[in-house]
Design goal:
The chain is of the alpha/beta class. The chain is about 30% helix and about 25% strand. The protein is built from eight helices and 17 strands. The strands form four sheets. Strands 1, 2, 3, 4, 5, 6 and 17 form a seven-stranded mixed sheet that branches. A five-stranded parallel sheet has the order 8-15-9-10-11. Helix 1 runs parallel beside helix 2. The chain is elongated, with a radius of gyration of 22 Å.
Length: about 300
């Protein structure tokens, strides 16, 4: 293991949209920053990213490439393509260790580690996730509007999603994948909206290279679709927040203030790990706010130290 540990003002664990956005603000604030990224963003299968002003329709990889090119202009920002395995808070800041044994120290720590989506055990679902099995109409609804769409969900979630997605297409079907748990009132509303409810258990999602063609059910029936909206369970991508003692929300997200402060001193978090609103623009905004607040704290601490010496 490396014994000579480089010291940074801030280490960002995670180098996708939130981590890069924070690094940009901190680099422009003349801070020595290290971004450590494992290269596994949850949107890596998504062919196009939408809703980010001036970059609508570009791929997530293109956005990350542009960001890294721009950050290269700031000599105080460095990168490591690594996986962080431990982060320990010390009297002077943090000790961060990667899977290869590299070790670094910093005064502040930013967790921009994202989320890990847990795919249901349905053949074809994982292959289509982010391509034609979609989670967000604001990200992908325009591209499939007016076409034959489906919602795969049940109960309250199924009702909420169906009433949302019907705004993008009147050709919508709700698939509950088993007996419906909708209330009578919810079923009445869906009938008024002319949204059929199919309760047959799903056997597989038919697709070509991740692009959905239809659904196949246990009874042998099939339904052709252009896209399917659904939600999946998720967990934190790493257990670093738990290692550090950060409080979590009931949804399993890292609890933060508006400016990314966690419940642990000097630990910040931003991006998908902190919010259910998983859009590039939101991650970028959260990263910017966290970066600005981190710099503010560093300045305040430096001034306090000067006052103590004086």
């Amino acid at each position: 293991m490396t014994t000579n540990k480089p010291t940074y003002d801030v280490i960002s664990i995670g180098g996708s949209n939130a981590g890069l956005s924070a690094a940009l603000l901190l680099g422009r604030s003349l801070r020595k920053v290290l971004v450590i990224d494992a290269g596994q963003p949850c949107n890596r299968q998504t062919p196009h990213s939408h809703g980010f002003l001036t970059r609508d329709g570009e791929t997530p990889a293109q956005l990350a490439s542009i960001a890294r090119d721009q950050l290269a202009h700031y000599p105080s920002v460095q990168f490591r393509s690594e996986t962080v395995v431990t982060a320990v808070q010390t009297e002077d800041g943090f000790d961060v260790t990667t899977a290869s044994g590299e070790s670094f120290t910093s005064r502040k720590l930013l967790l921009a580690t994202g989320l890990f989506d847990i795919m249901p055990d349905i053949p074809g679902f994982a292959e289509c996730w982010g391509r034609s099995v979609l989670h967000c109409p604001y990200c992908h609804g325009y591209e499939v509007h007016g076409q034959s769409l489906g919602v795969l969900a049940n109960g309250e979630v199924g009702y909420e999603m169906a009433t949302l997605i019907q705004h993008w297409s009147s050709k919508l079907t709700l698939f509950t994948n088993g007996p419906s748990t909708l209330t009578y009132t919810q079923q009445e509303m869906l009938q008024q909206l002319r949204i059929p409810i199919i309760e047959s258990p799903l056997d597989a999602i038919e697709h070509h290279a991740g692009m959905l063609t239809g659904l196949r059910f246990n009874d042998g029936s099939q339904v052709q679709l252009k896209a399917l909206f659904s939600r999946v369970q998720f967990r934190q991508h790493t257990d670093i927040a738990s290692q550090l003692g950060c409080a979590m929300t009931d949804n399993g997200l890292i609890e933060t203030t508006e400016f990314g402060k966690t419940t642990m001193p000097d630990v910040f978090a931003a991006g998908d790990a902190t919010t259910l609103f998983r859009q590039v623009s939101i991650a970028v905004a959260n990263g910017s706010k966290a970066g600005a607040w981190i710099n503010k704290e560093l300045i305040t601490e430096d001034l306090d130290q000067i006052n103590q010496v004086g």
